[in-house]
């Protein structure tokens, strides 16, 4: 390895020489005469890169372009006098100054408020993820609170108690119901034993005359009340009629008004108040005859609405009768049905005629004979009958009398209105007969 040395030497004369050179340069600069823009012209002797010489035309264009960027063309004013302000203060300037002054005062007040010292933040202690950590207060005493816990096991004791209570309640209720029925049964047995000595007669139609005079001896020989009537076995066949229903009404006044209106038009009208307030405008024995009769009603007045309704009479095998001769009830009903069939048939025939014709003497004589028989039976049945039965008999007799009277007048002076009157009377008779049988029939 070679070792080399470098030696630096400073010449003491070098400082004097450098100061002299600087003095000469300063003296030379002081001898330079400054020139203005108008006194000199820069001539660039550069040549174009392509070697072409600058022509006078190119030189003039260059001078025009350079003149645009001269210092005197940019800003010749060296002093700025500011904007012009009026000596008179305007309202807008005064308001603006007030706002600025108030804003500066507010900012000073905000700056002068002492800074609030925030309490040092305490570190947050995080509990371990595997532990259930809760803060403990050493200054609070732990109160003893009773702990309520529900058992998760099945409450067999409560279930058994509920079932036993339900069974006991059911048994008690059953004994209560049985005691009520047993009390009613004992009462009925005692009442039957007490009423045994009284008179009770159940006989057929053939043996009723002989058995009605026999009575059983006993402690009581008092007369029978209407409710304790004699039960008699009878045979009344079932029958059915087809009525022409005009409507069902909710008030008696409305039904009565419609019935009166139909009567003024010369048509049949009858009202049934037993079940619902119903107004009928005709009837027939069969449905075909009822259809033909409905056409006649609508020909008389097209505004009348007519619906066909069946009125059924079930067969009767026993009646409860308190009057004399209960065996005459089936005969009385049969004579009435005979008159109804005869008169209704005649009304259908003569209402279908274009010009009404008079009745024959034979037809009228048959009506008179049946009517007389019915009146005789009605008088016999009314003797000793109850008030309700007597009222029904009276309605039936009155309605049949009106029907026969209409037929008598029609024989003298044939008229369609008289046939409709006979229809009205027959419907009233059938309604009264239904009420009569309902009151005496034994189920």
Automatic annotation (TrEMBL):
Presence of keyword Nucleotidyltransferase: no
GO terms of molecular function: peptidoglycan binding
Keyword terms: Membrane, Transmembrane, Transmembrane helix
Protein name: SPOR domain-containing protein
Keyword Transmembrane helix: yes
Residues that span the membrane, as ranges: 156-181
A Pfam family: SPOR
Annotated Gene3D superfamilies: Sporulation related repeat
All residue ranges annotated as the SPOR domain in the record: 243-300
Skewed-composition ranges (Basic and acidic residues): 8-25
Classification via InterPro entries: SPOR-like_dom, SPOR-like_sf
Organism encoding this protein: Paenibacillus roseopurpureus
Region described as Disordered: 1-25, 105-132
């Amino acid at each position: 390895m070679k070792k080399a040395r470098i030696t630096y030497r400073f010449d003491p004369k070098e400082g004097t020489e450098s100061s002299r050179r600087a003095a000469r340069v300063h003296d030379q600069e002081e001898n330079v005469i400054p020139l203005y823009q108008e006194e000199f012209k820069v001539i660039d002797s550069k040549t174009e890169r392509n070697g072409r010489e600058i022509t006078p035309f190119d030189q003039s264009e260059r001078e025009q372009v350079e003149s645009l960027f001269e210092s005197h063309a940019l800003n010749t004013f060296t002093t700025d006098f500011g904007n012009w302000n009026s000596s008179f203060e305007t309202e807008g300037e005064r308001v603006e100054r007030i706002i600025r002054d108030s804003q500066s005062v507010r900012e000073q007040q905000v700056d002068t408020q002492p800074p609030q010292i925030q309490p040092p933040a305490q570190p947050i202690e995080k509990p371990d993820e595997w532990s259930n950590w809760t803060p403990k207060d050493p200054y609070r005493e732990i109160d003893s609170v009773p702990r309520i816990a529900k058992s998760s096991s099945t409450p067999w004791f409560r279930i058994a108690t509920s079932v036993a209570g339900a069974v006991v309640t059911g048994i008690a209720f059953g004994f209560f119901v049985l005691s009520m029925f047993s009390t009613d049964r004992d009462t009925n047995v005692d009442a039957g034993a007490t009423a045994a000595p009284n008179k009770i007669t159940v006989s057929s139609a053939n043996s009723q005359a002989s058995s009605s005079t026999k009575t059983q001896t006993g402690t009581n020989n008092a007369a029978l009340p209407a409710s304790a009537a004699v039960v008699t076995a009878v045979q009344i066949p079932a029958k059915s009629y087809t009525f022409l229903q005009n409507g069902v009404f909710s008030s008696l006044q409305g039904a009565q008004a419609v019935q009166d209106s139909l009567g003024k038009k010369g048509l049949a009208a009858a009202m049934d108040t037993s079940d619902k307030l119903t107004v009928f405008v005709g009837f027939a024995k069969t449905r075909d005859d009822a259809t033909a009769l409905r056409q006649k009603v609508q020909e008389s007045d097209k505004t009348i609405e007519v619906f066909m309704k069946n009125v059924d009479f079930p067969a009767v095998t026993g009646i409860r009768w308190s009057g004399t001769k209960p065996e005459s009830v089936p005969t009385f009903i049969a004579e009435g049905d005979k008159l109804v069939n005869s008169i209704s048939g005649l009304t259908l025939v003569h209402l279908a005629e274009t010009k009404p014709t008079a009745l024959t003497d034979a037809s009228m004589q048959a009506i008179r004979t049946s009517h007389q028989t019915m009146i005789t039976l009605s008088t016999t049945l009314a003797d000793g009958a109850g008030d309700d039965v007597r009222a029904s008999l009276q309605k039936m007799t009155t309605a049949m009398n009106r029907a026969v009277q209409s037929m008598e007048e029609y024989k003298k002076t044939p008229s369609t209105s008289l046939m409709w009157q006979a229809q009205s009377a027959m419907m009233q008779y059938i309604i009264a007969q239904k009420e009569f049988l309902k009151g005496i029939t034994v189920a």
